[in-house]
Amino acid sequence: MAVSRRQIWGDFAAALAVGLLVGMLVSLMPSVSVAVIVVALAVAIASLSRADRQRGVQASGVLVGSGALYLYGAINTTLACMDDRCGNGTPLPLLLFALMTLGVGVATGASSIIARRRE
With contact defined as beta carbons under 8 Å apart, do 106 and 60 qualify? Predict the structure, then answer.
């Protein structure tokens, strides 16, 4: 069954909004938001092994949205640490988590969208 391009991008946009919301929860409830991202990572990876492309597009939207906010936070923290002394703190774990989240999100989204367009 062919899926329209509008539906694919609509699913992705809705999931991107959810991902931005999850990313904003980092400041309020860090452990909950990280748990949601870990679940989204698991769904994204599972969708690649199955033929469940709609969940893949949705999971990629969540990952890209939250990863973008994590990346913003990592860059902001890095710039603040250049201006002021951070002690022994480092933004490197946050930066790596942001890059991993964005990378998996983009890869899952691209493969899911390509696969859905070929159906």
Answer: yes
| Per-position DSSP letters for 84-117, written without gaps between them | S--TT--SHHHHHHHHHHHHHHHHHHHHHHHHHH
| Residue closest to 104 by CA, chosen among 52, 53, 37 | 37
Written as six digits, the tokens of 60 are 């990629």
Q: Is the pTM of this model over 0.85?
A: no
- Check: CB of residue 79 under 8 Å from CB of residue 33: no
Token readout for 31 is: 């452990």
**What CA–CA distances, in Å, run from 99 to 9, 39, 54, 119?**
23, 17, 23, 30
The answer to whether the beta carbons of residues 73 and 94 sit under 8 Å apart is yes
pLDDT, tens digit (0-9, with 9 covering 90-100), for 32-64: 767 777 887 787 777 777 666 777 777 888 888
Query: Which pair of structure tokens corresponds to residue 105?
Result: 């999100």
